[in-house]
């Protein structure tokens, strides 16, 4: 897959955030290029991976989570 922006991807040991969509434990956190951040559970992180990659300046992934957008 080719993208114009390639956000930095970081792996973290433990994530305490909750998914902004459904409230489940977050597996992925996004720092937006426009400022602010979003958190996603595994389900929503994979479902929205294309959009996440487009708007992210940095992405943090919980250790062990296999993200579809990586
Ligand atoms: Zn979710």
TrEMBL record:
<dbReference type="Pfam" id="PF24254">
    <property type="entry name" value="DUF7455"/>
</dbReference>
<dbReference type="InterPro" id="IPR055878">
    <property type="entry name" value="DUF7455"/>
</dbReference>
<protein>
    <recommendedName>
        <fullName>DUF7455 domain-containing protein</fullName>
    </recommendedName>
</protein>
<feature type="domain" description="DUF7455">
    <location>
        <begin position="16"/>
        <end position="64"/>
    </location>
</feature>
